[in-house]
Every structure is written in structure tokens, then in C-alpha cells.
Amino acid sequence: MLTILDLLNHYLGFFNVNTRWKGKIYTILATVGDFYIAYLAVMFYLNKNFLRGTLLVGAFLVIMYFAILNFVYYFTKKTVKWDISPKVEKYLGTQEKKEFGTHQSVYVPANGLYKQNQVLPTTVISDADMQAELQKLADQLLVAGLMHENYNGLSSNEQIALMRVEKIETIYANHPGTPIPYFTVKEERDGLAIYGGVNEMMASRLGRIMSVGLMPIEDALRTYELYPATVTLTGGKGHSIGRSSVIQVQNPYQIQVELAFKKKA
Q: In this record, what's one Pfam family (predicted)?
């Protein structure tokens, strides 16, 4: 059973599978394995090995208890009053501590400052080649010490509270995102492309802008002069809300782009 779980976890890692679906799959497999333990307990009793049979019955009941809790959580999105998981976590888990003696530095975008009413969010897509460039960029930022994976000093409980308040499924280790040192936009045949990197010499194509605000990129290019305002890297390893604490996840990197705009004369 452990081998099956290990293989399943390995292959699911290749896909961006929702953590709740993973939880459902693991819960079903654990329940099947638990009934196999019950079968072994019965066989030990039939062979008059009462000590081992009793130990297996105890293991069966403990696993079944947690399996029921998981069924309630993953299949109904509810919890029960008799869930002892928080108490178990209190004694066995470790609480992440905030780093002391640190201060938040002021970030000035490389492309200048804009007022909030001068910029619009965009929708960006990245194909497989661009995804590879984003992964390479993330590695370079980590090596250069420009990206930190400490969840902005938030504890597990603070991360859970933030995800619930902002109604997001995942908080990433580099929260709230890592500004890309160099970026620019280029108008191409298929629209507007984002290029970026640790510097201009190492810049590569990271994504294509599909819309600006609510406007398709074609309409936006006809109506406005567009300038890159901010490009932020997010994604990678992160945490999602589990039954009693956070769950580790791994998602592809992506970029969040804001463009400044000025109506064409």
C-alpha cells in the first residue's frame, strides 16, 4: 500500500492537480488499505494469534478514525467537533517562527512609478517554452538572493487566515511575489509579448498578453499607448489549506503584469 501511495504521489507531481482531489484519492486508498489490515487481524484471530490480531484491530480503528475525518473534510468541506488533529499537531507539529531583526526594504520599480489609476492588470499566458524560461528565471533569482521563499515571515496560521480572507487557494513561498529586475514589452504579430530576466542581456520571452483590463489586447493596442509598469514572478512551491494545517503544493511559475496606459491622440 505504501508503494502504491509513493508511486501515486510521484506521478501526480507531474500534473497541477488540485490538492483537494489529491486528498480524496489518498483518503480512498487509505481506507482500502485499512480494510486489508482488518482482514489480516481476522486471519490472526483464526490462527489463535490474539496479541497480533488485537494490535491490528487497534491500528484499524485508529486509521479508520482519521479516514472518516478525511472523508468529512475532503468530500463535504466540513469538520467535526471530535476532530483531535489540532491537538495532535500541537504536540507533534512545529510552528514556523518569524524572522527577527529583518526589515522590509522599499522597492522602486525599474520602469518608474505610476499612480494606481494609471495602470491596468493583464491576462498573460505562457506556453511550454516560456514556462521553461520562467523556471530558469526563478532559479537565477534564488541564486542571486533576489527571491526569498519564507512566506514573507507568515506562520502557518497566518497563512491560513490570509488565504481565507483573500479567498485564494494557494499562498506561495515567495509571497507576495518577486519583482523581475528587467522587463519590457514588444509588439509582435500575435499581440504583445513580455520579455524579462535578471538583466537585459539575459532577458527572454516570458509570456503573451491576451487582455488589458477587460479589453482584448488587439482593442487595447488600437486605443492606448501601453507601457510596462510592473512584472512580478509568482508560483513554485507553496501552501494550501489542509484539514488541520497547511499542505505543501508545487505549481508552475507565472507572471503577473500591469501595464500603464495613455489614450492615443
A: DUF6681
